[in-house]
Amino acid sequence: MSILVTGGAGYIGSHTVILLIEAGYDIVIFDNFCNASKEAIKRVEKIVGHKIATFEGDVRNREDLTKVFKSHNIDAVIHFAGLKAVGESVENPLKYYDNNVNGTAVLCEVMAEYGCKSIVFSSSATVYGDPHTTPIVESFPLFATNPYGRTKLFVEEMLRDLYVSDNDWKIVLLRYFNPVGAHDLGIMGEDPNGIPNNLMPFIAQTAVGKRESLSIFGGDYDTPDGTGIRDYIHVMDLADGHVKALEIIKNLSEVMTINLGTGNGYSVLDMVKAFEKASGKKVPYKIVPRRAGDIAKCFADPSYAKEVLGWEAKRSIDEMCQDTWRWQSRNPDGYKNKGK
Ligand code: NAD
Ligand code: UFG
Fold first, then answer.
1. Would strands 229-230 and 266-267 be described as parallel, antiparallel, or unpaired?
2. What pLDDT, in 10s, does the model give residues 7-19?
3. Is there a domain that residue 66 lies in?
4. Count of domains in the chain?
5. Which residues lie across from 77 on neighbouring strands?
């Protein structure tokens, strides 16, 4: 079975490609490298032991996609390609609507043209906004607090409309919680541009000496230690969720919406302590005012994923930190040649 992985050079896509190849799928990667390095693909190829068909192109560009579908018999698409920086989406919303919403529309049109109607989409826990309670189940009300989140909501709705218009479509919407960690060989991992927005890469860069100190955004939340609580999930567990989604996709008779989280909530201070333990390094921090738009608590009820996919996250917070540290300490400058 041939799977097209859009955004396959990115953080989650590159890790998922490894497990897909190990599961026996033929993989085609499609990426415009706007937030990825070609080196990431070389590292994947090193791990799997062979070359991977790779197309440089943009999901908004029909011709770029047509080249792939003309030359490969694609059975299903895993659609990771998208922009994900919340702050940038507030400053430049049209860029996000164009890339994430229009990009998905063009992709689906070309898929339909070539008779490929199976898609797994990267959604996000951000679609729950500020949940009224935790853990979060899939039926909770949806709300977006920023343009990035709205693109995820819109694409979910667009794909549901697509299914209503044509029941041949097989659609899985995976709502990721907070992906962290890296492949355990230490040659692949998350490689953010500039100053990291997300907690884990910031902690890792502080531990390796690239940043002086972590700013903890808010120490006065209604949580046991006052800092924000999230559901951190190891990227390899997340990747495995995609392999499981492909196993059921052919038999779907409705659009499936599934949380991919561990069900455990950890605070910012829990993460700092776990990282110090894993790395043997001190992570200096200071508590600063809350970050606009942040919520106190967000963690999944992952029981539906277990029921329908037979999937559950297996890796502990210690493994998440150890694997991040192995990648960060051996590759302090990431893939170095990002965007090339
Ligand atoms: P990433 O930026 O590392 O990967 C996205 C990839 O898509 C990059 O390789 C980028 O170059 C590519 N891309 C972007 N726009 C493209 C376009 N128009 N055409 C072709 N390629 C394009 O991000 P990631 O963390 O791997 O996230 C993957 C997906 O998961 C994204 O859709 C993201 O919104 C979603 N998601 C991520 C998180 C997270 O915290 N990392 C959480 C929830 C959902
Ligand atoms: N945090 C800090 N200091 C930092 C960075 C983060 O204290 O330098 C805190 C935040 O306040 C929050 C927690 O660490 O309490 C996690 O923050 P992240 O930025 O790592 O992650 P978020 O939960 O804010 O958001 C992430 C992605 C979103 C996605 C969401 C759910 O950035 O795009 O997870 O999947 F929608």
1. antiparallel
2. 999 999 999 999 9
3. yes
4. 1
5. 4, 119
